[in-house]
Every structure is written in structure tokens, then in C-alpha cells.
Write a structure and sequence with these properties.
Layout lengths: L2 H6 L23 H14 L4 E5 L4 E5 L5 E9 L2 E6 L2 E4 H14 L6 E2 L4 E4 L3 E7 L4 E6 L5 E6 L2 H8 L4 H11 L3 H4 L3
Antiparallel strand pairs: 1-2, 2-3, 3-4, 5-7, 6-8, 8-9, 9-10
Length: about 190
Amino acid sequence: MGRAACRTWCLTLAFACGDPTPDPTPSPRASSLELVIESQLGVRVGQVVRVWCGALPPGCTATLPDATRLQIRLAKSPDGWTWSVDGLVVSADPIEAYLRETLSDLGAVQAVRCAPRIRRLDPGGRIECSLERGGKAFATVRADGSFEVEIELDPHAGAARAEPATESELVNKSRAVEPDQDDDDGE
């Protein structure tokens, strides 16, 4: 795969987890394309990756050791096939490190766990992390790999924030905690 194809592969792994030299033992009966993707992707994520490519439509699936599956897009080029991961591949390591530092700055030092270590996200996707004392942290990952975080130290607030809610549910919850408008107007 050429440099241009490498640049098209969107990877947000500033710090790959695990051994930077994955087991080079190839998959049994793998095609040359599968072996190339296994090798290149394995080095990037720091884990052994197994790849299977189907005939129609042209595409492949990579499987990480924790059974996380990544969809691989293939494109024909004059030099052969190029590949890219469908979406972002995100490592939890830099997010956990940032959260630990932020929690320390807040005077709330505690362990942080954002499992799984490597995952696929769509741009704007959210990662939920558990804090040692029961709270939650959330990282929203942008298309360029940068992220923003929200930290809920209170376990109840973290649990509530973790639950997906529809817009109408949020409006109803907001109305439940607002003072009654009629009482304020003297009516």
C-alpha cells in the first residue's frame, strides 16, 4: 500500500496499546491481500489482527483479539488494492491518560477504564468510561481524532448521563425540576 493510501486510513491511535510488534505468524490459508492488511493494521493497533476478505462486494473484516470487528473498505488502484478502515479506529489509552490527568487537576485522583482498548467509532461517536469511585466520563471523538470529555464524578449523575434519552424525555425531565411558571406569575 502506498503512502497516499496510508493517509486515507483514519486512525486516531496516538498511543497504540499492547506490544508494538504483533505476532507475525500469518493466518492459515490467508490471501496475500489479507496478509498485507493483517500486517499493516496489526502494527498500527499494536495487536494481532486477523483479516478475512469476501469476494462481493469487495471488502474485508478485521478481527482484534477481543473479538472487536472492523470493516475494511477496498479500492482498486493502478498499483493494486488500497484499503481503509470504515470509520475511526480509536485507542482508549490516550483518552484514559487525559482523564487521569484532568481528574488529578480536579483533586479527584482515581482509576479510569474505557474498555475495550481498541474500538471503531463513527466521527462524533461517544466513548463511556468508568471511574473508580462510581462516576462516569464520556469522550466524544471528532473526525480528526481529537476528542472532548465530560466528567460526572457523582455515580448517580454518571449513570443518568449514560442512559440514552430521547428529546421528549429530556424536556419532561427539565420541566419536572423547573419551578411552576403559574405560581411565579401570581395566577
